[in-house]
Amino acid sequence: MIKFIIRRFIPHHENISDKRVREQYGVLAGALGIICNLILFILKLLLGLFMNSIAVISDAFNNLSDCGSSVIAIIAAKMSNRPPDIEHPFGHGRIEYISSLVVSFIIFMVGIELLKNSFTKILHPEEVLFSWISLVILLFSVVLKIWMFSYNRYIGHTINSGINKATAYDSLNDALATSAVILSTLIGHAFDLAIDGYVGLLISLFILYTGYNVAKETVNILLGSSPNPELCNQVKDFVNEGMYIIGTHDLKVHDYGPGRTIASIHAEIQDTVNIVDAHLIIDDLEKRISEELNINIVIHIDPITTDKEKIKGMEEIVKSAVKEVNNSFVAHNIRMTIGYRCMNVIFELSVPSPQVPAADTIRKDIIHKLKEKDPQLNVIVNSVTALT
């Protein structure tokens, strides 16, 4: 159904690299969220008041907070698509992440308020009225929330939107929460147990946990979390396909919002290659990565020496230092660049598999040992993998 709606309301919907198309996806998802959540809020609020159920009322206000989240999602889709300006040369894409953070605060506030109301209901329980019509309405709510989970997840993956992915799992949480309300209503009716307040308490804790997860994921992105390994491998594979390129290192990826990724990487080229040819190769790679991966990348050339005597001497130094750190470690694919004031030495390292998780510490130890042997060395341990 969502694919039909997308085709109906988003012209050129398949062109997701276009910022305007991406904005339309965000607006459509937000508009659908507002409509669905308003319907659910009104139905559940009336139902909760009729049944005298704090659990149902809690669920209703949870839907109202989701409605506010959808409004923020639409605003974010519009604002994040604004072009770069003097104060924001990399665009406004991170507004989407800030919006996700605002959504998490809304979820927190709703959760805390419902937590207080649920405690009151536990201390002063009241009878919950039962009717099969009420259960039908609640079941309708579960089905609608599962559909909202489905379409938000689809749009989130289609346009790589963090706020839509967060909204998707929030909808799934809502479906589970409403299922808990249905279960508590049936148990209370069958066994005459006053568990409504306790279920409301569980739902409020569930809402708070959802807010925490949304906030945690968003803060990690804003602080600069590790880039997607799959994306990193794609970039490295592209660069390694370039003519005369024998390796890469020091890939850095900066996320300025979905579809606004900036990266840099060092490409290793034999020092015998003509500088003009090297420039043409790198220029072509930058354009291809921009077009095919939608990444604005800068590729730095590292001229790898072909002097066999110097390479042999460096191999002896590196292997000696590595063995001094740990006799079971193996350095391989050793290469080097010669500069005016220092030398870069680049290599891969293999270690026993139980020691792979300590890769950062191992890197520091080996770099320190090599610096002791030659302070002018700039050491790059390109990878730490398990011995085979």
Your description of this structure?
- The chain has helices at residues 2-9, 19-51, 54-79, 95-123, 132-159, 162-191, 196-223, 229-240, 275-293, 308-325, 359-373, and strands at 245-255, 261-270, 295-304, 330-338, 343-351, 377-386.
- The strands form two sheets. It has a three-stranded mixed beta sheet, covered by helices on one side. The protein has a three-stranded mixed beta sheet with strand order 4-5-6, with helices on one face.
- It has three domains: 1-223, Cation efflux protein transmembrane domain (Alpha-lytic protease prodomain-like); 229-304, Cation efflux protein, cytoplasmic domain (Alpha-Beta Plaits); 308-386, 2-Layer Sandwich (Alpha-Beta Plaits), CATH 3.30.70.1350.
- Helix 2 runs antiparallel to helix 5 (132-159), helix 8 (229-240) packs antiparallel against helix 9 and helix 10 packs across helix 11.
- The chain has eleven helices and six strands.
- It has 388 residues and is an alpha/beta fold.
- The two termini are 49 Å apart.
- The mean pLDDT is 83.
- Strand 2, helix 9 and strand 3 form a beta-alpha-beta unit.
Give a short overview.
By secondary structure, this protein is of the alpha/beta class. It is built from 11 helices and 6 strands.
- Give the low-pLDDT segments: none
The proportion of strand residues reads 15-25%
Question: Could you name the CATH homologous superfamily of the largest domain?
Answer: Cation efflux protein transmembrane domain
User: What number of domains?
Assistant: 3
Pfam family, one: ZT_dimer
GO molecular function, one term: monoatomic cation transmembrane transporter activity
Keywords: Membrane, Transmembrane, Transmembrane helix, Transport
Subcellular location: Membrane
